[in-house]
Amino acid sequence: MKLNIALLAGDGIGPEVIDQAVKVSNAVAKKFNHEIKWTPALTGAVAIEAVGEPYPEETHEICANADAVLFGAIGHPRFDNDPSAKVRPEQGLLKMRQKLGLFANVRPTFTFPSLIDKSPLKKERIEGTDLIILRELTGGIYFGERGRKDDGNTAFDTMTYQRFEIQRLAKKGFEMAMKRSKKLCCVDKANVLESSRLWRETVQAMEKDYPEVEVSYEFVDAVAMRLVQWPSAYDVMITANLFGDILTDEASVISGSMGLMPSSSVGSKVSLYEPIHGSYPQAAGKDIANPLATVLSAAMLFEDFDLTEEAQAIRDVVNKSLAVGMVTEDLADGGKAHKTSEVGDWLAGNI
Ligand code: IPM
Ligand code: MN
């Protein structure tokens, strides 16, 4: 197969972790006789510096015409404490999600047998966790009307959802549940928010089309608690943009390190693959960041092109690296901490 992949390294540790995913993907391509053409493009703070825009039109063209996008991270501390900054790297990510129509963010959470003791949570609670949070990504409070009034003394952000936005996300959730354990949980705040009541109403109306799927409805605050108490009780979860943002960071703790969790963002056209962690500026350029989340995001990419064996080869080699202790400092736990690039070389070499 020939794949044309847009490569958006972005900021902070983005370029370092992306490099490792490219190495591993190229090793997979070689082994299974595929051809990957990587097309790099600018995004994030580096794009603001270069062209004054975090998601330039040229980058959008490259992404829109690619078979898939592999993305590193976005964000720079220079902008975080400057409320007056007119343009922020994060806006690039939001614009990219919106312009590419990436309305569903797939964030799996699972445990690694060799890391089960590294999670801050008790082993017996997290064993067997295998869930997917399907986060709505192009609507809700991230994209609703916002602003200031009363001479700047009042600020507002609005959470707006249209029925079709909920339907298309829920459809993915139901389909995913059908392929898994046929359990779907709709996470909302319907006891307070009108938009959440529309979520419930919409999902309830879709239940009849998927009679085999057992659907539950839970409030997001309760889920925040149960997710770390009994994560194995969940399978496919669907939720609004902001709730999903928060719950997926929380869920990453289950696996033991945020540096492990991959994600994909899908819509109607091209899909994007990215680690769920951020740009981790403190580690940028030090060759210490964990590249596994990005490497596993590449596995999700292969999987979506029905290259199942290829995806499995990546997951297997990742598991092997964890088992033998070929890990970065976040997972070293007193053992030897390897460099980001060393881990990447090892993975590629062992494919
Ligand atoms: C994420 C990130 C982004 C988000 C930020 C960087 C805008 O936290 O992908 O989860 O909030 O969606
Ligand atoms: Mn987030």
Structural key phrases:
351 residues; ten-stranded mixed β-sheet; Isopropylmalate Dehydrogenase; two-stranded antiparallel sheet; globular; 14 helices; binds manganese (II) ion; single chain; 20% strand; alpha/beta; 2 domains; binds 3-isopropylmalic acid
Give the SSE layout.
Blueprint: E1 2-10, H1 14-31, E2 35-40, H2 45-51, H3 57-64, E3 68-73, H4 77-80, H5 89-99, E4 104-110, H6 123-126, E5 130-136, E6 146-149, E7 154-157, H7 163-179, E8 183-188, H8 194-206, E9 214-219, H9 220-229, E10 236-239, H10 241-255, E11 262-266, E12 271-275, H11 292-304, H12 308-324, H13 329-332, H14 340-350
Parallel strand pairs: 1-2, 1-3, 3-12, 5-10, 8-9, 8-10
Antiparallel strand pairs: 4-5, 4-11, 6-7, 11-12
The structure holds 3-isopropylmalic acid and manganese (II) ion.
3-isopropylmalic acid (IPM) binds at residues 74-75, 90, 93, 245.
Task: Describe what this molecule looks like in 3D.
The structure is a single chain. The chain has a ten-stranded mixed sheet, sandwiched between helices. The chain has a two-stranded antiparallel sheet with strand order 6-7. It contains 14 helices and twelve strands. The chain is 43% helix and 20% strand. It has helices at residues 14-31, 45-51, 57-64, 77-80, 89-99, 123-126, 163-179, 194-206, 220-229, 241-255, 292-304, 308-324, 329-332, 340-350; strands at residues 2-10, 35-40, 68-73, 104-110, 130-136, 146-149, 154-157, 183-188, 214-219, 236-239, 262-266, 271-275. It is an alpha/beta fold and 351 residues long. The protein folds into two domains: 1-111 and 260-351, 3-Layer(aba) Sandwich (Isopropylmalate Dehydrogenase); 120-255, Isopropylmalate Dehydrogenase. The protein starts with a strand and ends with a helix. The model has no long low-confidence stretch (mean pLDDT 96). Manganese (II) ion is lined by residues 245, 249.
